[in-house]
Amino acid sequence: MRTVTTSSEAQTIALGAEIGAELKPGSVIALEGSLGAGKTTLVKGIARSLGITEAVTSPTFTLIQQYDGTLPLFHMDLYRIDSLEEFELLGAEEYLYDQGVTVIEWSGKISQLLPASTMFITCSIEPDQTRRITIGET
Length: 138
Ligand SMILES: Nc1ncnc2c1ncn2[C@@H]1O[C@H](COP(=O)(O)OP(=O)(O)O)[C@@H](O)[C@H]1O
Ligand SMILES: [Mg+2]
Prior knowledge:
alpha/beta; binds magnesium ion; single chain
């Protein structure tokens, strides 16, 4: 387990890029933390390390956004998902076993479905507005 404090969006992107450099085909990353904690910012860094130049935004209406990089990146934001059934009905489960990299914001909503090898990352906003980012077991 490793905890990093970032003081700017750029530092969080750099941390995401560092994490992204270690990813392999089939990697699943579960991102937890409140709105604005920096989850999407981390995904921007992961995308950068996979050579993706397309802008990464939160998938608002589409639950899953796919980007083509050195590995395919599947970015999910489950904020609007109400149940495990809804996730399964959308056919999203297959991405958890794809040979790309899958990064999931609000992953706690499907915690029962996450593969055993999932990397857990938790982001929180400190009183001084820095972000505390914990990588590893939760
Ligand atoms: N240290 C930091 N790390 C990440 N984002 C930060 C940081 N400091 C300020 N911010 C701002 O906080 C917001 C984080 O948004 P975002 O990554 O979309 O959060 P989430 O996906 O967790 O809801 C951005 O507007 C970003 O500019
Ligand atoms: Mg987000």
